[in-house]
């Protein structure tokens, strides 16, 4: 009888199994405001993503899919109808409605709220509630980011409608969202704990708790990984190649993918030295980008071919990597009037605090010597670099990085109007054909047509050589081997964390 009862208990326990486990992560800085429209820093954004949902999101392959939205439809090029899921609850049990979306839009435009995302909504004419779960968004003109802008986390109207100062609201430290995890507040400089939302509309996550350990020193994070005190972490190429043991490789799955960002050498195209395309082409042909990747990252990276993210609709696969050709580079320089008695020379400026970038500058210097080019290097403190070199365009060349988005926007970097001081077209790139294509793309909501436009922009920019596109480093993530259902994808591994099981 006792054996029968024991067997019955085990069977019932298995059928009603809960996963009372903790996922141990780390953060190097504290969040400031866990409010999705105010979460400007990376720590705030990362935590807020667990707590809030947008109307849409990216799936594991980088495609736009519904999140809080159950469906969406363009009635015409400027009218978007969005229907909401009707089973979404806020963490306090209230139902999500169209009022919450309208309220969020109003707060983004609230003159008392200072948010970095306001410019994303410049083409929105109005947001109107049609019924409890239906919205109508009118755009001033067809807008290529019509869906992407609604990936921002939605705010609860019922909690914040009487808030007089959202910037200082206690909500920012004790938020209520719709996300897969909840929070009971946080303190600056301390660990953060998140708890599985039992009423999450896609089902309660199987991991009960997420524990973010506050570890401002990356060395400490690495040591804790080696001691198996963290479940997920990032490694540098040096660490992955030289500083982990065979046991570490058993304890963790190693997942690599290209970072969403590249490093480049930018020419000041207003400088007489760089107005000759042959000079820029010669410098490009002199560089062995593959060698740079091998030296800087032990091969954990790839050559950058152009301005948009590989694997996205904007990337043109037909553009092949530039291979080093010293003889052709010398010939182009000779055509441009440079030789041993009149060598081409220039200065490259970059910033301190990024050893990889400084090392890259030294490799460039060495490689360019092979074609007789004399490149000097100046390294400056970041703020001084920005204020005296980058912003006033006071340079011959700069070595910098740029983040790559799943939905690229060519306007800030490549449109001639963005050459003005304070904008991001630092090198002074000016091509009327590209300007026209950028404007045409900004009013194209058909993704296939937008793809063709952006691939043409990609090819034209590469042909004009305003930058030496150099490399894209790999993101190296390690994950506890005991965790089940981790599925590496184009966008990373966190896309299906809700289904992870940690024994």
Can you characterise this structure?
- The protein has 503 residues and is an alpha+beta fold.
- The protein contains 15 helices and 18 strands.
- It has helices at residues 2-15, 42-51, 98-108, 157-160, 218-226, 237-242, 246-251, 277-286, 289-297, 326-335, 355-369, 382-390, 411-414, 432-442, 447-464; strands at 22-27, 56-58, 64-66, 69-76, 79-84, 124-131, 134-139, 181-183, 192-196, 209-214, 232-235, 252-258, 261-267, 301-303, 345-351, 374-380, 397-403, 467-480.
- The strands form four sheets. Strands 11, 12, 13, 14, 15, 16, 17 and 18 form an eight-stranded mixed sheet that branches. A four-stranded mixed sheet has the order 1-10-9-8, with helices on one face. It has a four-stranded antiparallel sheet with strand order 4-5-7-6, covered by helices on one side.
- The longest helix is centred in the last third of the chain and has 18 residues, at 447-464.
- The chain is globular and about 80 Å long.
- The protein starts with a helix and ends in a 23-residue tail after the last strand.
SSE topology:
Layout: H1 2-15, E1 22-27, H2 42-51, E2 56-58, E3 64-66, E4 69-76, E5 79-84, H3 98-108, E6 124-131, E7 134-139, H4 157-160, E8 181-183, E9 192-196, E10 209-214, H5 218-226, E11 232-235, H6 237-242, H7 246-251, E12 252-258, E13 261-267, H8 277-286, H9 289-297, E14 301-303, H10 326-335, E15 345-351, H11 355-369, E16 374-380, H12 382-390, E17 397-403, H13 411-414, H14 432-442, H15 447-464, E18 467-480
Parallel strand pairs: 1-10, 15-16, 15-17
Antiparallel strand pairs: 2-3, 4-5, 5-7, 6-7, 8-9, 9-10, 11-18, 12-18, 13-17, 13-18, 14-18
Helix pairs in contact: 8-10, 14-15
